[in-house]
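Here is the promised in-class demo. Please do not try to memorize the tokens; focus on the logic of going from shape to residues.
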């Protein structure tokens, strides 16, 4: 009987031990699996940090690339004329084009924007028109009358420089109102503009009436009243900016204006005035604070470019390489968006 009771007690103890051992096995498996699934949250943050913010500011036209041009393969003459301001930039591009193998003839005449559009839109004798101002509606109509639809290609920016000799000791800054008086027939002497300035004649040097620089200055400074300037005393007009440079250098009482490149070339002898307290520079052009900054263009047509592959190739090369030389010439790059828009215009003109 005692043996039977002992066996029964021993069996009960064994059953109790087994029932208490099972719950301890289950918890040991849960933590083992949890760490293996934990790294999932650490992957999500690295994927969420994709470089989207750096892409957002890019303009829609960003990254426009033109077909590559090999100047060695380009044949045929290229004829252009127009702005004396754009002239040194086009000359620099033409020299690069020749240095890289073009053996044809490039003609670039400095005759002023207005005269350039005369040749392009009326005579129809040029392939490219250089301009320091946008084409006028009357000029567009003249182009259309001979079957030409002009296309504008923005190539850079100029800060029109108002300059004096370094011998001038009384002038460093002018307001636009003072500038209008200086170049007006209503003022003869410097003291007529400001009593504290010398009682000496104002010697004025200005681009001629065929110049886009003249048109721009009259519009921006003289309220489109060109007679104020044309009837002023002691005025010399010239389409040759180098003549204007020499004229200003001739007297401490002389003043003139022209494209920044001509000031840049003569900065050791001339001084550029600040306008409204802002001096012309890359920074003030880029941030839009210099009052006399203006766009620079070349013009052609889709028909010319398609019929004369050499013209299309040169404009392509111009737009592709202009920013490599524009600073050396003395001008400032167009915005990325504006230059890309010009490249898109080229592609559209060529049916691409």
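The designed amino acids, position by position:
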């Amino acid at each position: 009987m005692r043996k039977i009771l002992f066996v029964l007690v021993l069996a009960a103890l064994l059953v109790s031990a087994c029932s208490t051992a099972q719950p301890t096995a289950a918890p040991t498996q849960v933590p083992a699996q949890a760490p293996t699934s934990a790294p999932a949250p650490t992957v999500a943050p690295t994927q969420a940090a994709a470089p989207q913010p750096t892409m957002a500011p890019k303009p829609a036209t960003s990254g426009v690339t033109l077909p590559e041009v090999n100047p060695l393969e380009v044949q045929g003459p290229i004829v252009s004329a127009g702005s004396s301001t754009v002239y040194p930039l086009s000359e620099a591009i033409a020299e690069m084009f020749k240095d890289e193998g073009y053996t044809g003839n490039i003609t670039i005449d400095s005759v002023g924007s207005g005269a350039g559009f005369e040749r392009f839109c009326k005579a129809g004798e040029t392939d490219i028109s250089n301009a320091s101002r946008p084409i006028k509606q009357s000029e567009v109509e003249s182009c259309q009358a001979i079957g030409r639809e002009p296309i504008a290609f923005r190539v850079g920016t100029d800060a029109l420089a108002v300059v004096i000799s370094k011998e001038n000791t009384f002038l460093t800054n002018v307001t636009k109102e003072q500038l209008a008086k200086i170049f007006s027939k209503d003022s003869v002497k410097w003291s007529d503009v400001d009593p504290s300035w010398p009682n000496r004649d104002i010697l004025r040097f200005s681009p001629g009436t065929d110049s886009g620089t003249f048109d721009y200055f009259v519009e921006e400074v003289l309220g489109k009243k060109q007679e104020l300037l044309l009837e002023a005393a002691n005025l010399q007009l010239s389409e040759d900016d180098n003549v204007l440079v020499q004229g200003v250098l001739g007297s401490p009482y002389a003043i003139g204006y022209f494209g920044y490149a001509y000031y840049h070339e003569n900065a050791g002898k001339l001084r550029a005035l600040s306008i409204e307290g802002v001096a012309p520079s890359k920074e003030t052009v880029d941030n839009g604070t210099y009052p006399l900054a203006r766009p620079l263009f070349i013009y052609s047509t889709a028909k010319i470019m398609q019929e004369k592959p050499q013209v299309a190739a040169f404009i392509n090369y111009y737009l592709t390489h202009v920013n490599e030389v524009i600073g050396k010439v003395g001008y400032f790059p167009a915005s990325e968006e504006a230059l890309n828009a010009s490249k898109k215009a080229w592609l559209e003109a060529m049916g691409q």
